[in-house]
Amino acid sequence: MTIHTPMSVLIVEDEVLLATELGFLVQEAGCRDVGHAMSSGEALALTGALHPDLVLVDVHLSDGPTGIDVTRRIVNDCHAVALFMTANVLRLPADFAGACGVIGKPYSEHVVRAALRYLEIALRTGMAPGLPPVGLQLAPAWAVRWGLAEMPLSA
Q1: What is the C-alpha to C-alpha distance for residues 33 and 26, in angstroms, rounded to an integer?
Q2: pLDDT digits over 131-141, tens only?
Q3: Strand pairing partners for 127?
Q4: Domain count across the chain
Q5: pLDDT tens for residues 15-61?
Q6: CA distance 8 to 30
Q7: What does the pLDDT read at residue 155?
Q8: 151 falls within a domain
């Protein structure tokens, strides 16, 4: 029997109550809540120090709408996987700033738990366990990486 370590999740959210609620949902999904960051600086420092399996990132942080920029750095500099959790889905660039996807706010507890379970399997195996659950939109590049879509033709 193989024992697997629960997925570690860092929460980057400037609303304390929302971050706390997300922390409980992370734990209910069988994952580990390893910390919370409210600003881009805290997010980068904690990602570098903790090396989480997944970083949940809001677009608007305490230092302004810096979530997209911090996600690029989390993905490129820290080599971590990020997922946007935002009411600002339309603000995301076409490449999702390298994030694996997005859950739009407002979201339900069920959506978050289902998405975390789905992402844990996909990250552990390198393949999607089927279509993403309702409420989780995968970035096109990650859908291709996990075998859900063909590479789009470039213009």
Answers
A1: 6
A2: 999 999 999 99
A3: none
A4: 1
A5: 999 999 999 999 999 999 999 999 999 999 999 999 999 999 999 99
A6: 10
A7: 39
A8: no
